[in-house]
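testing teh design pipeline on a random one, pls ignore if ur not involved
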C-alpha cells in the first residue's frame, strides 16, 4: 500500500478565516503524514516564493505520493478509499489529475479545471514545482506535467474559495498577492492594483464573470462532512452566504449549462 503525504500552506489562518481545522481533519483521514508550511510567510514577498516553499515541502515529504493541497481544498470522505486504490493502480505515473469543483455559495459549483495534485515522489523524486503561469505547477525534466498526459480520475476536489471571508479580509489579502505578482512580473495583470480597493474590485469583477458558470446545483448534505457544520452557520457579510449579493441577482444563460455539462461529462 502506498504511503501518502499531504502538504498545505497556512499563514494566520484564523485571521484570514481559512477553514484550516476542517482541512486538517480531512487530510488526516487520507494521509500518513501532514506537512504544514507557510507559518512564517512574509507580509511582502515575490510570487516565486510560493514555488520555493512548495518545493521544500515536496522534498521533505516522506510519502510515496505527495498531495499539494491549498487549505481550502477538500476531498469528500466517501472518496478517500477510492483515492488510496487509484494511487496503487497508477503507481508508475508521475502524477494524477483531479477535477476541481469551485464553490462560491454552497448551493452551486462549477467544474473549474483539472489539476495534477497527486505527485509520485517514490518513482519521480526529481519533480519540481516551478511551472505554469503561477510558477507552482509540477514539471519533470524541465517540462510541465500536462493533465492530458497523466491519468484523470473522477474524484473531485472541492474548493471553497473565500467562503468565510468578509470584504475587508479579501481586499487586504488580494492586495498583498497583487503586490507580490507585480514584484515578480513587473505588472499587476488582472489583479487590479496594490491597494485593497483596486485589488478587491478586480477580484469581484472576476467573481461576477465566473458565478454565472456555476450551473451545477448541490444539496447541503452532499458537501464533505468536514465542512458541513461551518457551511450551515454562514452569516451575512461572509462571501459564501450569498457571494456578496450575487446569489439573488445572477442569471445563467442556457449556453452556460450546456458548456458546464460538456466540460464535466465529455472533456
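output:
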Amino acid at each position: 500500500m502506498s504511503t501518502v503525504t499531504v502538504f498545505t500552506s497556512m499563514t494566520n489562518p484564523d485571521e484570514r478565516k481559512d477553514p484550516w481545522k476542517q482541512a486538517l481533519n480531512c487530510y488526516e483521514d487520507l494521509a500518513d503524514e501532514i506537512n504544514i508550511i507557510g507559518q512564517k510567510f512574509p507580509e511582502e514577498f515575490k510570487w516565486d516564493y510560493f514555488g520555493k516553499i512548495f518545493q521544500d515541502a515536496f522534498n521533505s515529504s516522506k510519502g510515496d505520493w505527495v498531495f499539494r493541497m491549498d487549505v481550502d481544498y477538500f476531498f469528500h470522505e466517501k472518496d478517500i478509499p477510492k483515492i488510496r486504490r487509484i494511487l496503487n493502480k497508477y503507481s508508475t505515473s508521475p502524477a494524477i489529475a483531479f477535477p476541481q469543483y469551485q464553490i462560491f455559495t454552497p448551493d452551486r459549483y462549477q467544474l473549474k479545471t483539472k489539476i495534477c495534485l497527486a505527485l509520485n515522489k517514490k518513482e519521480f523524486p526529481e519533480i519540481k514545482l516551478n511551472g505554469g503561469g503561477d510558477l507552482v505547477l509540477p514539471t519533470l525534466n524541465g517540462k510541465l506535467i500536462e493533465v492530458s498526459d497523466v491519468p484523470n480520475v473522477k474524484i473531485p476536489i472541492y474548493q471553497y474559495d473565500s467562503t468565510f471571508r468578509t470584504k475587508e479580509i479579501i481586499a487586504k489579502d488580494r492586495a498583498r498577492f497583487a503586490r507580490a505578482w507585480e514584484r515578480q512580473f513587473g505588472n499587476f495583470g488582472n489583479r487590479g492594483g496594490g491597494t485593497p480597493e483596486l485589488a478587491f474590485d478586480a477580484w469581484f469583477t472576476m467573481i461576477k464573470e465566473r458565478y454565472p458558470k456555476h450551473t451545477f446545483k448541490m444539496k447541503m448534505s452532499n458537501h464533505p462532512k468536514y465542512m458541513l457544520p461551518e457551511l450551515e452557520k454562514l452569516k451575512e457579510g461572509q462571501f459564501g452566504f450569498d457571494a456578496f449579493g450575487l446569489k439573488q441577482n445572477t442569471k445563467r444563460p442556457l449556453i452556460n449549462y450546456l458548456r458546464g455539462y460538456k466540460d464535466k461529462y465529455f472533456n
